[in-house]
Every structure is written in C-alpha cells, then in structure tokens.
Structure prediction request, 324 residues.
Amino acid sequence: MKRRAFGWLALLPLLLAACGDLPQPFRGNPGGLAGRLVTPPPYRVAVPSPEAALLSGTESEAFARAIAQALLRREVPAVAEDPLPLDWRLTVEMRLEGNRVLPRYALFDPDGAPQGVTEGSAIPARDWARPTAALLTDVANDASRRAADLLLRAEAARKSTVPSALTSAGPPRVYLLPVRGAPGDGNDSLTARMREALGDQGILAQDVADGAGFAAEGRVNVVPAGRGMQRVEILWIVSRRDGQDLGRVLQMNEIPAGLLDRHWGDIAFAAAAEAAGGVQRVIENAGGMPAREAGGQRNQPNAAPGGLALPPRAAALPRPEPTQ
Prediction:
C-alpha cells in the first residue's frame, strides 16, 4: 500500500483554566473526611442515575443529585452524571423485601474494579413507592455516609492518597482511552501512534486508569464536505483525576472521500504527532509536567516529526457547557 501523509490544516488546543463549572470543595479547608484521609481525595466520584432503585426516571435523577450533593457536604468531590475516564463510580440498587426496601451501594474504581459494597438503612416500601424530596434527602445522606466509609477503606487498602502523576517525581501518567469513531483501522492506528507520540513528549501513556493523574480520549467524526471530499475532525479531550476538564485539542482537514476507509498509515502518525504536542501543553499548563532541569530542555510542544508543526497562534474553541 502506498503510504501518504499530510499536514493538518488546524490543530486548535483549548486550554481551560480551573474554574467554577465543576464543584471543587476539596480545595482549601479539607473538612472532616478529608482530614481522616490526610489529604482530600485525589479523584472524583460519579453517581449515575440508578436504573435499579425502584424509582421513576425523574426520581432516579433527583436521587443521584441528592447523593452527589450529600457527598460534597462531606468534602468528597462528586457529580450526578456518568463517569469520566478517571472517575470512581457509585452504583445504587434497591431490593424489595416484604414491606421494606433495602438499599445496596457499590463502589468501583476507574478501571471498573469493585472497591466495596455496603447496605443502607431499610426504608418503608410504602414511603419509597412515592418518595418525597425530604425522604430522598434522608436516604441520600445515609448513602453518602456509607459511601464515604467505602472510600476510606479503599484508600487505606491502596495506601496512597496522592496520584504520582501530579507530583514532581517521574513523568506524568496518562490513561489513554481507545480512539472512537474512525473508519477503517483508524481507531487502532491513532491510539497506537498517540501512545508513541506522547512518549516523545515525555508523557507515559497507559491503558489502565490505576496510577494515572490524567486521561486523554480521542473522538473521530467524518462528514461529507462536497465535491468528492470528506472533512475529518479529531477531538482529543484531556481531563484530570479530580474530574476537571483541562482542555480539548481539535484537528480538522478535508481529504478525498473514502481515503481513510481502510488504512490510515502515515496519516495516523502525522495526526498523533501534532496532537500530542497540544495534549502536552494542556498537561503542562495544569502543572503536571516535571520541572525542567537547569540547562535542560524537554521536547518542544510545537514540534512534530516530518516537518509538521502546530499553528503559532491557535484559535480557541467555544467553552464546553457543563453536563446537567
């Protein structure tokens, strides 16, 4: 196969400063649970809307929000939404036994490994059939207390409260998720080339979340552009272990229709080489890169093999709206 490479017309990094879109109660005064953990949790807990809670859809969403809010009051970073790549996940199940409903809470780490299960206080089935806001709040408070205990035990078992990727020792570790949405062999090719390109930037890419302080995921969208052409859009999303969306790097180019239906070849190499510089810049701006040694120099984030380079002045994408 004849291998072809081309320069991407646009590589647009969006470097988001830490701000108030996501709750960050773990900064500043750590509070009660955080004090017991020595430092605040270096991760975020996602509470998806429970499907097995014997509630309607609207009630399930309200219950998930109440649990997340109760965890926040305990100084545990939490959101009522599906987990991001480095989020921990708290699931809720309700079991009907006679005239009682028994809650069951399970905690999972970012790799999906179970970290503990506990049961909550029994609830009268008649009350749970038509739960009031006050009842949802009471049960959520009980759930948050039990979830906090699960987190405490998990922290003790792992004997670590600070991810190594956020310290000055060693290279930053990035959980690189498989690329999604590309035609042909693009998903595998882009993932493999990105892993190599991040290594060139002094970043250790890994395929599990354990030990990673950051996550990067690539999403590909190919749409018709007219005149026998297609527009390829590759979006790289960089997030931190505490759930903060740190930045997004967007690549766009127009190619002949069908060019990437089978093999990506050098195109994957060129795209990954450029994007890795943007990802490195996002992590560096977040304070995640090791300090330069005196007289030393890391790989330049604007450099890419084969004469490819990032635009000297990148345009900013619109800031993503927080998920409700």
Summary: Helices lie at 31-36, 57-73, 125-129, 133-158, 186-200, 266-285. The two ends are 47 Å apart (CA to CA). DSSP finds six helices and twelve strands in the chain.
